[in-house]
Write a structure and sequence with these properties.
The complex is a heterodimer of chains A (167) and B (756). Chain A has five helices and five strands; from the N terminus they run ββαβββαααα. Chain A has two domains: 80 residues, Roll (Ubiquitin-like (UB roll)), CATH 3.10.20.30; 74 residues, DNA polymerase, domain 1 (Orthogonal Bundle), CATH 1.10.150. Chain A has 167 residues and is an alpha+beta fold. In chain A, α2 packs across α3 and α2 crosses α5. In chain A, a hairpin with a 2-residue loop joins β1 and β2. Chain B is an alpha+beta fold. In chain B, 30% of the residues lie in helices and 24% in strands. Chain B has 20 helices and 28 strands. In chain B, the strands form seven sheets. In chain B, strands 3-5-1-12-9-10-11 form a seven-stranded mixed sheet, with helices on both faces. In chain B, strands 7-15-14-13-8-28 form a six-stranded mixed sheet. Chain B has a four-stranded mixed sheet with strand order 16-23-24-27, sandwiched between helices. Chain B is globular and about 75 Å long. The chains are: A alpha+beta (167), B alpha+beta (756). Chains A and B meet through α2, α3, α4 and α5 of A and α2 and α18 of B.
């Protein structure tokens, strides 16, 4: 039974060191949700299409359903639960609430994670750049209009130096 | 969910002029942006097992044997078959034709036959694959035409679940009138997958004393409650259904969750432990319901000036192997089939037929998008035949106040569809772009063609006819000594903003702040039956029940505790005073039809809906002739929906619906292979991404009935207009008049090559 062969996987998760005993091919998504109990990261398709399971690994957005645990050994992993510790994350969370960027909410953690990466890289992304960054994150509720608006509003708030609380 | 955390700036000013019409941020926003909201797959119960479903790989046949090969330790697994169902083996809905688990025969691919449970998901999956169901195939039916031809009869005597007929005036005489122009057309729409991003799932517990408890992803708690009472022969108080945070529904979580809930509960009952039964994406797409495919034939008699004289419409939908909700879908499609137009002679013959597909079911719009697609494409054909501007044809025939729809409903409202049309045409620069695109297309040497097209439509809100009367929905509010109130309703938050809207309506009626209003999570042990969360009825119907219940509370507090002023402090004082002498303060409202509303189901005529939303949508597209790729560049959506409760949430509904309809029109192709979905993945069933969806310019006209107008349902409306508008725009760009959707590049390319 492959999943009986456990090994220790150590990485940094939302700024803290964690260590998990699991098979090295366990999906990072399952490590987060099952082993570590962080259920904010969602599974929508299990094949890297929908982006609901997006997390940040060493600064890049990845689909955690496609990443084996062994690949994140020694990496810095960030999930939706860690966003509140960063100004981009807080600004985006506030903007998604204020501008209708979240409806059913199942794609929202992945959207926020993907948008966080963009705002760390670009101060004022254009709507086209926002749409491109989020092209790997499917939403079935919003038609994306208010998601793009939310990311734009968060970018403006950050440039203006407004540190919006998340609630 | 949690009121204190959900509060924000906008929810603290209780002395402001009221809550209706304000952009209150959604109450569940905080939990959703932090990852704290718990969806069914995020929930675990102690000792919980996982469930799995063994399904038919054959579309139709007789079950000869179910074999359990010895390589699996079957004694470790919980195995459930039809024999384990305590009550009747029926999914209780409209007809009693669908079994919870197939027993002697299977009637569609992926029909459930055996259920398994185990704590180890890997072993469970190996076991699921190992079960061998031996099925002796029977002939199956996959096309609407072959179902109608009765080559093989698979349901009843004639493969027809339901028929409806609309007869108004004298269609045949008009069709024979030599002075009229007769235009004919046939239109088809394909199945569409709801593709909510959260797949379906349920967790069930079973206890001999408490009975069945299920929690999960769902739209209609009391549908499930009813289905479980039937399947387990339990009284109402021994069945409890709790909604967990739900990641989208769009109708897809209306009827199928009853099946999953019953399956999970059967496993839990046999296991003596909680069981979680969640579907992965592939299983969800293959097994659960989709939008009904349709085929519509039109014959239209029209004067040379564009005046509609007669419409002869045959509307057929593919219901799949079991009846499920097909009669209701058919009914709505039939009533919308002649649109918001004045036409003295209308005949509609509508049928829902049985095929060997998995049952089709509820999906946003519920039959109306199908019949409206056909009508609007037909009207474009009429306009082209008469060399009339498509907008002008609509203008000449648009209903006016005091005129009646095809089923004879007199529109009493002061509708101004002219004004609605003008607003949309102006916003979209219709005349100018019609001309400049045409000039560009005539003169360009390049591969890109531009086009602009429109659709005019209406959508009835709430249940059809006497449906709301039969539902007799109830909603309840309790007030407490600390001046807070609690909303008790079965309406579910599935992303559309139910909890926020209810909060606004109740806070507004009580003149208190939103933070004083708690919305109870739908749980059948707590909330009354407010009816299902479907048919664009939540804000309009249940919201109004809550408004009435809130006014009762206010009345009691005014009479017995001196409540006069607005605001939290006055309300809390009055509550304290009231509770000095009483133990509880609960108000309840039950649905009552608006006076004078009458629907006759036998003649299929009368007042079909309590309210209609009205809309004109305009799409602009670019078509690349090299690839036949269609890009929607611009989308204008203008509608009248009565009073808008929350502009941001309302616009979000329209935008999301438009994007789904763009997918239905251009991308979303369910590929059937011998009755089975061949593309059940997000990789090969394509929904719009942020790169595909255009800017969507949404506007709401001031309510026709004035500033104090009631609100109308809007959830389904935006599904109706985009597909015909987009195909009209493609026709404007290329001259190719598409009659079927999804209109894929390969079809457009073939048509372009065929047209030389």
């Amino acid at each position: 039974m492959p999943n009986r062969e456990r090994t220790d996987i150590a990485f940094e998760l939302n700024g803290r060191s964690v260590e998990v005993a699991c098979h090295p091919l366990t999906r990072l998504l399952d490590v987060l949700r099952v082993n570590l109990g962080l259920t904010g990261t969602k599974e929508g398709c299990g094949e890297g299409e929908c982006g609901a399971c997006s997390v940040i690994v060493d600064g890049a957005v990845v689909n955690s359903c496609l990443v084996p645990a062994a690949q994140v050994v020694g990496c810095r992993v960030e999930t939706v639960e860690g966003l509140v510790a960063h100004r981009e994350g807080r600004a985006l969370q506030a903007a998604f609430i204020a501008h209708g960027g979240a409806q059913c909410g199942i794609c929202t953690p992945g959207m926020l994670v993907a948008a966080t990466c963009l705002l760390r890289r670009r101060d004022r992304p254009t709507p086209a750049e926002i749409r491109e960054q989020l092209a790997g994150n499917l939403c079935r509720c919003t038609g994306y209009v208010r998601i793009v608006e939310s990311v734009d509003a968060a970018a403006v708030a950050l440039v203006d130096g407004r540190e919006e609380p998340s609630s | 969910m949690d009121d204190a955390r959900g509060s924000s700036d906008a929810t603290t000013h209780s002395d402001a002029p009221g809550w209706i019409g304000r952009d209150v941020p959604r109450r569940d926003g905080h939990d959703k942006v932090t990852g704290a909201a718990l969806y069914v797959d995020d929930i675990s119960l102690p000792g919980m097992l996982h469930g799995a479903t063994v399904r038919s790989e054959v579309a139709r046949g007789r079950i000869v044997a179910i074999e359990y090969p010895p390589e699996i330790p079957w004694h470790e697994l919980v195995v459930v078959t039809a024999a384990d169902i305590p009550g009747p083996n029926v999914v209780k809905l409209i007809e009693r034709d669908q079994p919870l688990l197939a027993d002697e025969v299977v009637n569609h691919c992926d029909e459930p036959i055996v259920l398994l449970a185990h704590g180890d998901r890997e072993l469970l999956e190996r076991a699921r694959r190992a079960v061998r169901v031996v099925i002796e195939p029977l002939p199956a039916v996959f096309e609407i035409e072959s179902a109608l031809a009765k080559d093989v009869v698979i349901w009843g005597e004639d493969n027809i679940f339901r028929r409806y007929a609309v007869d108004r005036g004298d269609v045949d005489t008009a069709l024979r009138d030599p002075d009229l122009v007769i235009v004919e057309g046939t239109y088809e729409t394909g199945a569409q997958e709801q593709m909510y991003i959260e797949p379906q799932g349920m967790i069930a517990e079973y206890d001999e004393v408490r009975g069945v408890t299920v929690r999960g992803s769902l739209q209609c708690p009391y549908y499930i409650h009813d289905a479980l009472m039937s399947a387990f022969c339990l009284p109402a108080e021994q069945v409890r259904v709790i909604q967990s945070a739900t990641g989208g529904g769009f109708g897809g979580k209306e009827e199928y969750p009853s099946v999953i809930a019953a399956h999970a509960a059967l496993l839990a009952r046999k296991a003596g432990r909680p069981v979680k039964l969640t579907y992965d994406r592939v299983e969800d797409v293959m097994a659960t319901t989709k939008r009904h495919p349709s085929r519509t034939r039109h014959r239209t008699a029209v004067r040379r000036d564009g005046t509609l004289v007669a419409m002869d419409i045959e509307f057929v939908i593919d219901g799949g192997a079991y009846c499920t909700l097909s009669p209701v879908v058919l009914s709505r499609g039939t009533i919308h089939a002649a649109g918001p137009y004045r036409c003295p002679n209308v005949r509609v013959r509508a049928m829902a037929v049985a095929t060997s597909h998995p049952p089709h079911g509820a999906f946003r719009g519920f039959g109306a998008p199908q019949s409206i697609f056909a009508l609007e494409r037909q009207l474009d054909r009429v306009a082209a035949t008469l060399h009339l501007d498509p907008a002008e044809l609509r203008r000449r025939n648009a209903l006016r106040q005091g005129e009646s729809t095809a089923v004879g409903q007199v529109i009493g409202e002061a509708i101004e569809l002219d004004h609605l049309l003008d607003a949309a045409l102006t916003q979209a620069s219709w005349d100018e772009r019609r001309a400049t695109f045409a000039a560009h297309n005539r003169t360009t040497q390049g591969p890109l063609r531009r086009g602009i097209g429109l659709a005019m439509f209406f959508h009835g809100a709430g249940f059809t006819g006497a449906g709301e009367v039969h539902l007799a929905s109830v909603a309840r509010i309790s007030a407490h000594p600390d001046g807070t109130v609690r909303v008790l309703a079965a309406s579910t938050e599935i992303g559309q903003g139910t909890t926020t809207i209810f909060g606004q309506i109740v806070a507004d009626a009580l003149a208190i702040s939103m933070s004083r209003v708690e919305i109870a999570q739908p749980d059948t042990a707590l909330v009354p039956n407010s009816g299902p969360t479907v048919a664009s009825r939540t804000t309009m119907v249940v919201g109004d029940l809550l408004r009435r219940a809130a006014l009762q509370i206010r009345g009691v507090l005014a009479d017995e505790a001196g409540l006069g002023e607005r605001g939290d402090a006055a309300f809390a004082r009055a509550c304290r005073r009231y509770f000095d002498a009483h133990d509880e303060l609960v108000a309840e409202a039950r649905y009552q039809p608006p006076p004078g509303l009458a629907w006759d189901e036998k003649t299929f005529s009368g007042d079909a809906y309590a309210a209609y939303a009205w809309a004109v949508y305009i799409a602009a597209v670019t078509v690349d002739l090299r690839t036949a790729e269609v890009v929607v560049d611009d989308f204008v959506a203008v509608q009248e929906v009565g009073r808008v409760v929350n502009p941001t949430l309302a616009a979000g509904q329209i935008e999301g619906g438009v994007a789904q309809a763009i997918g239905w029109a251009l991308y979303e192709h369910v590929v059937w292979r011998n009755g089975r979905v061949a593309n059940p993945q997000m990789t090969n069933y394509i929904i719009p991404t942020s790169m595909d969806a255009p800017e969507i310019r949404v506007s709401f006209l001031p309510a026709f009935a004035g500033a104090d107008a009631p609100t109308k349902g809007i959830g389904e409306l935006p599904m109706d207009g985009p597909a015909p508008a987009i195909l009209a725009a493609i026709e404007h760009a290329t001259g190719i008049a598409g009659t079927g959707i999804p209109f894929l590049p390969e079809q457009l390319l073939a048509a372009l090559e065929g047209s030389g």
